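Input structure tokens:
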């Protein structure tokens, strides 16, 4: 068998999580991975994550499913200037099928931008400019904006974020997050296996754990506070 994980169900109405102790870090580069099951709300923007920042203007750092049903990634540079903005070419709507989202970028290196959905590249480059040491200094939210809105109606598992670039166009590097049978792999107890360092964010529910384990950050920054009531998802990407 593979690596068994459980997932957290965000109801799209009042559920979200927030970490208020987010450090000031550079996000010129990074790697993001999660498993997502979309449960409803097609044609409506839904947030996977937002990092609040005073030096980038509103909506500076967002990972979301946009109103066109495309997975969208937007990290603005300092002053709200265009930075790294990527999306999928394909649309993704509510389905029982789990999606694996894997995004990696290094804005200082030409071509260092990748977006994979369930191990297949689906990259549309909207903008790609050097972020010039743009940093975050607010809070990090999952399942909604930091001021809760545009909530996720869906389920999340194995939520991972760190400000180090991994070239996920290399198959062996994608296998650090998704198996050749398109299932979750073990990222390690603190999420350190893929990059060799403990990531900033790693939210995971292991078999036998309760759903609130998803708010306990196995990464290096603070834990999350749950708004609303999360439920264990009815299915898992490990199924």
């Amino acid at each position: 068998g593979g690596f068994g994980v459980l997932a957290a169900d965000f109801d799209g109405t009042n559920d979200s999580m927030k970490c208020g102790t987010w450090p000031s870090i550079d996000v010129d580069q990074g790697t993001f991975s999660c498993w997502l099951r979309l449960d409803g709300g097609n044609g409506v923007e839904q947030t996977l994550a937002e990092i609040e920042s005073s030096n980038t203007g509103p909506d500076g750092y967002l990972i979301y499913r946009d109103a066109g049903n495309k997975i969208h990634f937007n990290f603005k540079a300092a002053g709200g200037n265009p930075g790294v903005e990527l999306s999928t070419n394909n649309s993704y709507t509510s389905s029982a099928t789990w999606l694996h989202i894997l995004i990696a970028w290094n804005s200082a290196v030409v071509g260092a931008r990748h977006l994979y959905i369930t191990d297949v590249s689906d990259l549309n480059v909207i903008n790609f400019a050097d972020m010039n040491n743009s940093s975050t200094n607010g809070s990090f939210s999952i399942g909604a904006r930091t001021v809760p809105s545009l909530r996720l109606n869906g389920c999340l598992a194995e939520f991972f974020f760190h400000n180090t670039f991994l070239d996920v166009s290399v198959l062996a590097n994608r296998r650090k997050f998704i198996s050749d049978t398109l299932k979750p792999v073990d990222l390690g107890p603190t999420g350190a296996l893929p990059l060799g360092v403990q990531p900033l964010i790693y939210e995971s529910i292991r078999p036998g754990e309760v759903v609130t384990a998803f708010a306990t950050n196995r990464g290096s920054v603070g834990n999350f506070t749950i708004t609303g009531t999360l439920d264990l998802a009815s299915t898992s990407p490990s199924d």
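The longest strand covers residues 29-38. Helices lie at 171-174.
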